[in-house]
Amino acid sequence: MANAGGQVESETPARAAGLLRGLRHAGRVVVDYALPPRCPVCGIIVADDRQFCLACWQGLEFLDGPACARCSIPLPTALAGDDLTCGACLASPPPFDGAPAAVAYGPAARTVALRLKYGRRLGHARLMARLMARPLGQLAGEGEALLVPIPLHRWRLWSRGFNQAALVADELTRLTGTPHDHHLLLRAKATASLRGKTRRERERIVAGAFALADDARAKAAGRHLILIDDVHASGATLRAAARALRRSGAARVSALSWARVVPEALMTSNIFDFASLDSDIRDQIMTG
Ligand SMILES: [Zn+2]
Ligand SMILES: [Zn+2]
Fold first, then answer.
1. Cα of 224 to ligand 2 centre, how many Å?
2. pLDDT for 34-43, tens place per residue?
């Protein structure tokens, strides 16, 4: 009996372990079945997690061509050279040295940014950072760069629960090793939406929106500060933030975004015919 009892005792844990293994296996199958990797734009099933499908990948317009050295607006290939500066920056230099973005703001880039910001698809921050790592490498060079996400006002942070720019900066640090600082730049006042406003109105809305933390000088002196944002639209927010960072004693201030609003004419034309652009598009270029 003792022998039989012993057998029962030795069989039970083995059977239980087998059952657990089976459950774990079944659980994984269920999870895999419920959550296959999907394209972050159109939702079609793809091979790997956080990968675009071919059609959406081809819909992204990478901004890796010749660009203005100051504001990084794409410039026509015909004018390619080492130190290009666009007319707008010659007339009125922006407060940053370079403001590249990974991709042009189009339907696919917009969907990714909106799903992170309003759809709480926090994994999209890593996807964006992956494509921002290359322009970051070109921008940061060998210097002592420090990533500074555009801060949200605390009311907005409370209501949203996270700052999408800070999530992207975290992922860029993880991918490239370039450190970030979430506390160097502060949002001193809540700002109204800039959408549909004229350039002058936008500048007025964001004036004084940013302030430096008390210890910003100690952290930033002599360094290259790189503002991180999701979408570079008119550039008014980036300019206001860059002006604040300039007061920190940083050696250099630049900005890196996921997507940049670029006039269609600049993406499709090889010839930069500024005069032929309508006034809205010219304003877009002028406001960087
Ligand atoms: Zn897709
Ligand atoms: Zn420029």
1. 19
2. 678 889 999 8
